[in-house]
Structure formats: C-alpha cells, structure tokens
Amino acid sequence: MRVVSGIQPTGNLHLGNYLGAIRQWVAMQHQAESLFFLADLHALTVAIDPKELAANTIEMAATLLAAGIDPDKAILFNQARVPAHAELCWLLQGTARMGWLNRMTQWKDKAGKNREGASVGLFTYPVLQAADVLAYQATHVPVGDDQRQHLELARDIATKFNLDFGVELFTLPEPFISPAAPRVMSLRDGTAKMSKSDPSDASRINLIDSDDAIAQKLRKARTDAEPLPDTMAALAERAEARNLVTIYAALAETGADAVLAQYAGQGFGAFKPALADLAIAVLSPIRERLTRLLDDRAAVATVLEQGGERARGLAAPTLLAAQRAMGLHV
Ligand code: TYM
C-alpha cells in the first residue's frame, strides 16, 4: 500500500480541503508509506506571480504541518523539486488521448468559452496528475470527490501504457474519497463547492480564519427558515441545510443522522452557534500551530527539501522502467 496526494499551493487551505482531503492524509500517514506534495507545477497552468507562488508553497506546506502531517511519518515535498513528475508526464503524453482530456469537467469549467486562449498546460493538467501518482506506484489516492474523474483518467493512462508497451509497470491507483465530506459546499450557495477560487471569502472557512471570522461566516451562512428534520433524506431539497449538517457531522466525527437526532425540531438560530463552537474547537489549534510555524519559514523549506530528496529516490526506478519500456535507454 502506498498513499500519494497533492494540493495546489494557491490561496488558503479551506474547510473543504481539510475535511475532504487533508484529514484523511493525516490519518493515512500512520497506516502506510505516504507522500504528500504541493502541486506547484500544476499551479503554473494559470497566470501566476512567482513571488506569490513561492510564498504560497511555504505557507501551504506549513498549513499541512499544522494540520498534522508529520515529516517523520510522511514525505512532504513540492512537486517541482522532483523532476520525475514532469519527465514522466511527457512520456505519458503519447498515451493520453485528446478525447479523454476533452471530456474532463475541470478543463471545461476552467477554460470556459475561451478554449483557444487557455494554456496548453491547463488542457494537459490531468496527465501531470497521472504522472504524480504513477511515478510512485500509488495504490491509494485520498482526494475530494471533484478529483475522481482525474483519478479515473490516471487509471486509463496506466492501463493503456501497460498494454501498449507489454509491461506490468504501472499500478492502478484507487481514489480514496472521504466518506464523511466528499464535497463540502459553499456557505453562500449549496449547489457550488467550497473553493479557493470563489471571489466571496464569506463562501468558505479558511484554516487561517480567526474565531470571530469563523463564527460570523457561519452565522451569515445561507440557510432556510425551516427547523431541522430527523433524517438526512428529509434534507434532499435543502442543499444549504444539508451542507451545514454534513460539516457538523464531519467535524464531530460522527454520522449526520446522529447530529439530526440531537437537533431535530430546532432552527438554525440554535444550530449555527453550536456549529461555530465546534468548528472553532477543531480549527483554532491548527491556526495557532500554523502561526508558530510561520515564524520559521526556513525550517519549513528544509522539510520540503528533505522530502524532495526522499521522493526523488522513490520515483527514480519507475521513471527508469518507463524509459526502458519505451526504448529510450539505448
Ligand atoms: P486542489 O488543490 O483543488 O484541492 C486539494 C484537495 O482538496 C479537495 N477539495 C475538496 N474536498 C471536499 N470538498 C471541497 N469543497 C473540496 N475542495 C477541494 C480536492 O478534491 C483535493 O483532494 N488537481 C488537484 C491537486 C493534485 C493532485 C495530484 C491530487 C495534483 N496532482 C495527484 C491527487 C493526486 C487539485 O487541484 O486539488
């Protein structure tokens, strides 16, 4: 078993990243050899400011450490420092099909109507993501539901490569989607996922938000006037209410039905302050650790450097085997 996953170092980590991915990373690092990385190469597929990218990479790495990633257990690094990712990505470009990439919903969403003006990297983004996990023979990839399609593509690429070159080289990676919070939704719109790119900061809870900001965002979260029912099924048509109950259950590490058993019949006037208290209890220790870690950015950079060295060692044999299979070693 080998666990691999990544996150783009853009903006702040939010509650969706935490409940959908990072909390699983923290748990899985104790169960299997794990590699987690800042996907700085993926961040290059849209316009970037180099200084900002470098600062975000350190800050995001510090946030992962604050959230519980332990560099003695997991390998933490930034993707750009392990050249095997970009090299294997190029080798896989001959295997990936235009039609497969054209079907990617993230490509369609991000390019929008301006496909001609989108970067080539935005289109081939999922091939790099496939290289990220295939380079390490990952068996499990803990991600939120929005990455499921990219993982399926990685499996398709691995299968076709193995078949085309007559090798049993790449392991097919299994997506591991958080059962508790596969898709945390925006606090302003229960039909949109919570996202770093939402222009409204009130739509998400950032891991660096103060206690007051967390309480205020939850107080203002969009809801309805009905009291809470006693089953999740009864929330089918109430997206915002369902989202808040799901967040509560995920934070409390309990089931949504148990939450409803406690709050059935009550309105959001009672539920929201309880949710805010819970969110603050979980998130404020992370924020405090993060503040301390950011006092010594050089130490965070050292963690990434050491992680990069270990990751280079682990990726090298697979890259070499791929080159051999393709006739690149003469
Ligand atoms: P990114 O940076 O958008 O998100 C990082 C992780 O957080 C999850 N996530 C969510 N989960 C639940 N609810 C939400 N609202 C929510 N928003 C984000 C994402 O599913 C992800 O697991 N392409 C990836 C980064 C990547 C990667 C990889 C992941 C690059 N290479 C290889 C896995 C394996 C991305 O942009 O994630």
UniProtKB/TrEMBL annotation:
Subcellular location, principal: cytoplasm
CDD domains, alphabetized: TrpRS_core
Record gene name: trpS
Similarity comment: family membership: Belongs to the class-I aminoacyl-tRNA synthetase family.
Alphabetical list of Gene3D superfamilies matching this protein: HUPs, Tyrosyl-Transfer RNA Synthetase
Protein name, UniProt field: Tryptophan--tRNA ligase
Record note on quaternary structure: Homodimer.
Pfam families: tRNA-synt_1b
Enzyme Commission number, as recorded: 6.1.1.2
Keyword tags: Aminoacyl-tRNA synthetase, ATP-binding, Cytoplasm, Ligase, Nucleotide-binding, Protein biosynthesis
Keyword flag Aminoacyl-tRNA synthetase: yes
Residue numbers binding L-tryptophan: 132
Catalyses which reaction(s): tRNA(Trp) + L-tryptophan + ATP = L-tryptophyl-tRNA(Trp) + AMP + diphosphate + H(+)
GO MF annotations in UniProt: tryptophan-tRNA ligase activity
Binding residue positions for ATP: 8-10, 16-17, 144-146, 184, 193-197
Biological role stated in the UniProt entry: Catalyzes the attachment of tryptophan to tRNA(Trp).
Chain location of the short sequence motif 'HIGH' region per the record: 9-17
Annotated signal peptide: none
HAMAP family: Trp_tRNA_synth_B (MF_00140_B)
Motif ('KMSKS' region): 193-197
UniProt keyword annotation of Nucleotide-binding present: yes
Organism of this sequence: Sphingomonas mollis
Record's subcellular location: Cytoplasm
Top EC group: ligase
